[in-house]
Model the fold of this input.
Amino acid sequence: MNCKTLIYDANQQEAITLTVDKKRYKLVRWDVSDTPQMLLESSLERYTKLSLLAKIPQANEIAVIQCNNIYQLPYQPVNAILEIRRWEDFRCIQEIELPECTDIPGCVTVTPCQQYIVVVESYASLYLIELQSGIVQCFAFETEYNYNLVFDPKMQFFINSSIDQFSYFELHWIDDLAMGQFSLRGAFFGDMRCHNDTIIFSPNEDAFIHICYHFERKLLVTYRRFNRSQLFSDRVAAPTEHRSYWGNQ
Done:
């Protein structure tokens, strides 16, 4: 069983994994209060080449993106589907088609205000889905090889990471999220070859943790502080960095 994504609920001491087993994508719910125990397993019924998973904290629900990632015969593009499912039993309670989303989805995230789900394609567009109404808006997003996008807890800006052997970060100020108006405030490179990454903001200070898988089978963890006041200036300096390695040395 190959685990692609894991999300965790600290209050319930449960986790949900998105796994691939014999080319079948599955959602698996676990009790992790002590020794991990499988509570529920459910296959994703659509023909799915690529899936993404995120947690909707206040609603006790999960967001699942299912995408074909290839053209099916007779070579007609297939749009990606956003499903809102219950945490408890994986029952689908809402299904939203992302129009013209036929490229590879790079990441899915929920805004800190809990009002929107954001889906970013690897190469082309950013989709903003309002949770209450299901309204979908599509905005141009020119950064390529998108692997992650995360919002500042204060909803002032977001950081997206791109990985094409080396990691690359862009910081966008949020002028008007509902209108898709973002201002690029700065960018900086990582200095390591890596694959697949995660960004987590600190709840207590202006800092974030970047976790990525290094090509030499190492898990690279960097802790980066940033100066919030610099976001208003004409030039944004790269955050200061502290680094740790997990894995083979």
